[in-house]
Design a protein that fits this description.
- This protein is mainly alpha-helical and about 650 residues long.
- It has 29 helices and three strands.
- The chain has helices spanning about 10-15, 25-45, 50-55, 60-70, 75-90, 95-100, 100-120, 125-130, 135-165, 170-220, 225-235, 255-260, 270-290, 290-300, 305-320, 320-325, 325-340, 355-360, 365-370, 375-385, 395-405, 410-420, 430-435, 440-480, 485-510, 515-540, 545-565, 585-610, 645-660; strands at about 565-570, 570, 580.
- It has a three-stranded mixed sheet.
Length: about 650
């Protein structure tokens, strides 16, 4: 078992030293910023109506919307969050792609896009208004608007952390300046600007991160060496602060096997049912099929055929992206565990949360007292946590054992040891690898790829937010029957407001050590119950508006109660009682989403039986599957690109990949 050497804790300060950009790096960054701003200004002359600004006038080719569809999800959430989850959970993170994306994207293309696109709805809430009524539309509009500003805030937070950690730039200043750049090009070119910059971002990310992955894999000794090292980590994760107990030996290297051994055998703490139902069904279908951020890209396509191909085109690179975003996190754990690092002879360490040295000094007497007791690490960490947040129980346990063996350690050494017993900052993994492997030129390219992903994440969420606000809240209830110029003005004004609110959400996101954990929590609140509402509304003509409203409201309420009554990694339990402790935040998210879905489904079914239909079959044509004429295949298209055929082939390929990495 690898120990954390107490006297080497001082390396913490060296590991956080900022780097300096060379002229070539600054040039690459500057060129990218100028290009995206230029795109916005170039498209400004086409923004003649609110539809042009908010929905692109349904004029974008399928290959562009397809890349934008997947790129809108390839922002800070994916680059930072998936690398963080790769370190924290290992290969099981791939389920966000192979279980939690592909099948839902195929379902969207084959079954749901005909309803979205064919109904001429400008947004997901507007479709809900057509199928149910204004109450359901308003509830979804408000909840989705909240979700988008949180997601945008997460992107902003990660970008500001990047610039602070790598370059030493002030966090607050970085946050506001980068937000200003996004505001500038979105304000000029609207959704079209966001879509075309997302396509540019897709290629920038591949160019910027493929070298980092290759160099990291080479540094750790190759994939075979990496898997062997990760098996050693799994049986002794405490040394790296990755868990309090041993897991199955393949916990970081298998996608299914460790999960079938039980929740205690894997770091995510999820069994096969929680994964299949919580992620593979509820969260996956809830996100890809009802999240207006991604659906908006497909709805911007130039015709129905292009709209249905959009998610299928995006599914092809989606299956391969884990190599680019999850593998770096696994490499980081392998490097930290084995003491590997042939680059400049420097050993790699997982990034840690920052603990102020003066607060660590103040905690020294308490730690000395705890060393004299025989409290388990978790209980000891809870006591220290009353003075210092973000203390890792496993690391503190190691520190206490070393203090018991060397009780004469000075206060200065012990304070430094406490500082390095901080919880892992998984969101900093990708930043630390970029800092480690990128020389001038390549550093500028990698930083530009990160910048592109974060700014695109902000832009995507802000453009979804401004469309929802303008069409589904402002036009529907606050100011109906105004001129189109008025709604165009409002779309631009609310874009500014959305950026400002997102900045506030960025400060909230700083509380979490994994961007993926917090965004999945938000999805559990919003998308999980919404998918239940959609499923019943789209496939049952009997579902009533009243039932849909109370079901959706109940699902969101249960999400809040579930989070308030359960705890995971110190998060939740804000209702004052803790009915259950989950082994990981992600496990809590999966079960929260599952409960929310089931409650929404149950309430909707009960109220459907108790209320009468308010819409006839004629009014539901094009909105309910059984009442809508089936779309005939376009016989002029090659058979392989027809949605049903292409979707089936994609699912088969996805199943094969799952078996390979079982």
């Amino acid at each position: 078992m690898t120990q954390i050497p107490l006297l080497d804790f001082g390396r913490l300060l060296a590991s956080t030293t900022a780097i300096s950009l060379r002229g070539v790096d600054m040039t690459i960054l500057l060129i990218y910023v100028l290009v995206v701003v230029a795109i916005g200004f170039a498209l400004k002359r086409y923004m003649k109506s609110s539809a042009d600004f908010l929905t692109s006038g349904r004029s974008i080719p399928a290959w562009v919307t397809g890349l934008a569809f997947i790129s809108a999800n390839l922002g800070a959430l994916e680059l930072v969050g998936m690398a963080a989850s790769g370190a924290k959970y290992g290969m099981m993170t791939c389920h966000f792609y192979w279980i939690g994306a592909i099948m839902a994207m195929v379902f969207l293309a084959v079954f749901m896009m005909p309803f979205y696109y064919g109904s001429k709805a400008r947004s997901v809430p507007e479709y809900l208004n057509m199928r149910f009524d204004g109450r359901v539309r308003t509830l979804n509009s408000v909840s989705f608007a909240v979700m988008t500003v949180f997601a945008s805030g997460i992107s902003m937070n990660e970008l500001a952390k990047l610039l602070n950690a790598l370059l030493g730039w002030n966090y607050d200043l970085s946050l506001w300046i980068c937000s200003g750049v996004v505001l500038l090009y979105v304000l000029k070119g609207g959704l079209t600007s966001a879509i075309y910059t997302e396509v540019l971002q897709f290629f920038m990310i591949i160019l910027g991160f493929a070298p980092v992955v290759w160099l990291g894999l080479k540094d750790v000794g190759g994939y075979g060496t990496l898997t062997s090292t990760l098996k050693q980590v799994a049986v002794a994760p405490q040394a790296l602060g990755l868990g309090d107990n041993a897991y199955a030996s393949n916990a970081w290297t298998s996608t299914w096997d460790a999960m079938f051994q039980g929740t205690a055998a894997n770091p995510m703490g999820v069994d096969w049912f929680g994964m299949m139902f919580g992620l593979g069904f509820v969260l996956a279908f809830g996100y890809w099929c009802t999240n207006f951020l991604v659906v908006q890209r497909a709805m911007a396509a130039k015709n129905m055929s292009a709209a249905r191909r959009t998610p299928l085109i995006g599914a092809i690179p989606k299956m391969l992206i884990p190599m680019l975003v999850i593998l770096p996190g696994m490499i980081a754990v392998g490097l930290a565990s084995a003491g590997k690092g042939r680059i400049n002879g420097k050993k790699y360490e997982l990034p840690r949360k920052e603990l102020a040295l003066e607060k660590c000094v103040a905690a020294v007497p308490l730690v000395r007292e705890l060393a004299k007791t025989h409290l388990e690490a978790t209980a000891a960490a809870a006591k220290v946590g009353e003075q210092l947040k973000d203390v890792n129980a496993a690391k503190l346990g190691i520190l206490l054992n070393e203090l018991r063996a060397k009780p004469d350690l000075g206060d200065g050494q012990l304070a430094t040891g406490i500082q390095c017993a901080a919880d892992n900052d998984y969101s900093g993994v990708i930043f630390s690898l970029v800092k480690r492997y990128c020389p001038p030129g390549l550093l500028g390219l990698a930083l530009t790829a990160l910048l592109a992903s974060f700014m695109s994440g902000m832009a995507g969420n802000v453009t979804a937010f401004n469309a929802i606000w303008t069409y589904d809240i402002y036009q529907a209830y606050l100011a109906p029957d105004k001129s189109d110029d008025h709604y165009l003005w409002m779309g631009r004004a609310i874009t500014v407001a959305g950026i400002v609110v997102s900045i506030g959400c960025a400060y909230f996101a700083k509380r979490y050590n994994n961007a993926m954990d917090v965004i999945q929590l938000v999805f559990g609140f919003v998308n999980a119950p919404l998918f239940a509402t959609f499923m019943l509304g789209m496939f049952s003509r009997r579902t009533t508006p009243t039932a849909a409203f109370y079901g959706l409201f109940g699902g969101i309420g249960v999400s809040a109660m579930f989070h308030g009554l359960t705890v995971a990694e110190g998060k939740g339990g804000w209702l004052g009682a803790s009915l259950h402790h989950f082994p990981s935040t992600m496990s809590q998210n999966f079960w929260l989403a599952s409960f929310s879905f089931v409650i929404c489904l149950t309430i909707t079914l009960v109220f459907t039986l108790l209320t009468k239909r308010s819409k006839s079959d004629e009014q539901l044509v094009g909105l309910v599957y059984s009442l809508t004429p089936k779309i005939k295949a376009d016989l002029t298209e090659p058979w392989i690109i027809r949605p049903a055929v292409a979707g089936t082939l994609l699912i088969i390929l996805c199943l094969i990949i799952n078996l390979i990495f079982w």
